[in-house]
Design goal:
Elements (H helix, E strand, L loop, with lengths): L1 H68 L1
Amino acid sequence: MEKLTQVQNKQSNLSNLLYQMHSENTSMMTKVHHDYLQVQQKSLQEINSMQINLADYQKFVKQLWQFSSS
């Protein structure tokens, strides 16, 4: 009977450890996903900014070209 109790205690400890590891893994994955989304958002903002700068530069060159052609 004592052996059975020891086995049940070990099983319970392993179960608790597994649950704790699962919780930590879930928490870590949530953080990684959040960080990924932040990086992705920042990249999209930078790309958008570069597109705006390029559009402004193209307008400037077009105006410069028109000015120099007249």
